[in-house]
Amino acid sequence: MHPLYKFTIDETEKKVSLNTNEIHENWDFDGYTKKDSNEYTLNGIPLKIIYRRPNYIVLRYTDSSGKPQDLNFVTISESVADIVNAEKERRNQAYLQIWSHGPIYSSSSYGKINFSEDGSFRWSGYKLLVPSILDAGTKGTGSASVKYSLAKGLASSYDGVLTMKFDGMNHEVNFLYKLEDGALRLEDTTGSTFSGNQIKSRSVSPVIIYLKK
């Protein structure tokens, strides 16, 4: 969440503003028209407010090409900076759990991974993952992090999503992971469904990698 992602109506200054990662708009506020019990159209502005709950609205924004899109907004009691810092800490602690649980994990089929406290890793003996998961020519070094979250349906079976950025590869590789007694289980997410920063579903036919300490 970026601190500038917000929607505001300033009735004193008669201004409306909408900021997201792709939209940065400001309009003069000239009131609204109520369409039904939970829908309001802002006069002269390509925005419709759909009331869902006391702390949750949907903005239906129509861009200059006439294409509408729905944007979800919630009210928050904490500062955005506190929420962002808490999420950074969650990600950092999740990775450190992987590192401290190991930091070296190995498999007779998929090689050995050595994680470092600073987020770097070295993976050797991974040739069975080429080219289905890793590109040919990929180097066995890179950086690892835990930056995605799990949907509720996955949270009971996995600890998180391990993102690995290999030197020599243009795209990141993501694995569902589970820390087990004396081991790390990784599950390839190729074909999985992601929505924003959350993984919603598993791959239909994932590669499962079981690495012992």
Task: Give the key terms.
213 residues, 10-stranded mixed beta sheet
Count the strands?
A: 18
* SSE sequence, one letter per element: EEEEEEEEHEEEEHEEEEEE
Shape: elongated
First-residue to last-residue Cα separation = 35 Å
Helix/strand class: mainly beta
Helix content: 10-25%
Count of DSSP H/I helices: 2
**Please, what is the average pLDDT?**
91
Low-confidence stretches: none
Strand content: over 45%
Our Rg estimate from Cα atoms comes to 22 Å
Please give the largest β-sheet.
10 strands, mixed
Overview of this structure, please?
- 12% of the residues lie in helices and 48% in strands.
- By secondary structure, it is mainly beta.
- Strand 5 (39-42) and strand 6 (47-53) form a beta hairpin.
Spell out the blueprint of helices and strands.
Blueprint: E1 6-10, E2 15-19, E3 24-28, E4 32-36, E5 39-42, E6 47-53, E7 56-62, E8 68-74, H1 80-101, E9 104-107, E10 111-115, E11 120-124, E12 141-150, H2 152-155, E13 160-166, E14 173-180, E15 183-188, E16 193-195, E17 198-201, E18 208-212
Parallel strand pairs: 12-17
Antiparallel strand pairs: 1-2, 2-3, 4-5, 5-6, 6-7, 7-8, 9-10, 10-11, 11-12, 12-13, 13-14, 14-15, 15-18, 16-17
